[in-house]
Amino acid sequence: MPLRLKPLHPLFVAEASGIDITRPLSDAEVRQINAAMNEYAVLVWRSQPLTGQQQIDFAKSFGPLDLGLKKVFKRKERLEDERLIDISNVDAEGNVARRDSPKNLSNFANQLWHSDSSFQAPRTAYSMLHALVLPSWGGNTEFADLRAAYDALPDRTKAEVQDLRAEHYALHTRILLGDEAYTDDQKKAIPPAVWPLVQTHPGSGRKLLFVGVHARQIIGWPTAESRMYLQDLLEHATQRELVYRHEWQVGDLVMWDNRSTLHRGRRYDIAERRELRRTTIEDVPEARLMAA
């Protein structure tokens, strides 16, 4: 059955159906999904009864899996497979985490506008987030279209940003939120990555404005000036007209392209249980992301 798409926003995002993502995908189905991702950047799959292994298998259809900060920080995990990233407020013993726990620090960092692992090279391409347990209110996820953000820039700003590059640093968000408990060795283990502010998406051919909260410095600019300019660009990229808000339902799987979107979680009662699982793939040449 061919992929069916229902647009959910004037600029990007579509609800996807017609392909059973709980079973192995054919090459033709992978091509259909890639083509849809190149156009819409975010796909919403409703009512998906995915096991953790099925989610891993689905993600692997598009490229090698990325572990993010797990590659550097080894902590006790409650999920058996490290390729599943635990986006929850649940500690390693299975209890709702303390408000001041490292788990919740990560959750608060996720409430800042970012693209997953933009602080590393290779960076990531697709992320897939599956909802298992939801709180009684809040906890939505918002997405911003970086292609539309570039299109909406004034011509003068397009000329300004054309050749600029920004340094993305993994611990920048943690330090912003007051967490400075990192050793020199840990900081050295996560060197910054540098990316152009203006990029061309390899699948769609569209230009985009690659910003986000991990970007802390424009190369060659004074720190204060570069951070204020990056903040202005981020504010532009996340204006309401460019943002889709996803209201989660149990069983939703949302996949997005980190190369052309930003996202952030929204506030909820962290005393209530919230469990989602994420898989993410690396953006490497062998990844099967082109809609051939």
Your description of this structure?
The chain has 292 residues and is of the alpha+beta class. The chain has a single domain (4-282), classed as Double-stranded beta-helix (4-Layer Sandwich), CATH 3.60.130.10. It contains eight helices and 15 strands. Strand 9 (198-200) and strand 10 (207-209) form a beta hairpin. The model has no long low-confidence stretch (mean pLDDT 92).
The first-level CATH class name: Alpha Beta
What's the architecture in CATH terms? 4-Layer Sandwich
User: Multimeric state of these chains?
Assistant: single chain
Q: Total domains, how many?
A: 1
Count of extended strands? 15
Q: Structural class, from secondary structure content? A: alpha+beta
Count of helix runs: 8
Tell me the fraction of residues in β-strands, as a range: 15-25%
Distance between the termini: 19 Å
SSE arrangement:
Elements: E1 4-7, E2 14-17, H1 27-40, E3 42-45, H2 52-60, E4 85-88, H3 102-109, E5 124-133, E6 141-145, H4 146-151, H5 155-161, E7 165-168, H6 172-176, H7 184-189, E8 193-196, E9 198-200, E10 207-209, E11 215-218, H8 223-237, E12 243-246, E13 253-257, E14 261-265, E15 275-282
Parallel strand pairs: 2-3
Antiparallel strand pairs: 1-2, 3-13, 4-15, 5-13, 5-15, 6-12, 6-14, 7-8, 7-11, 9-10
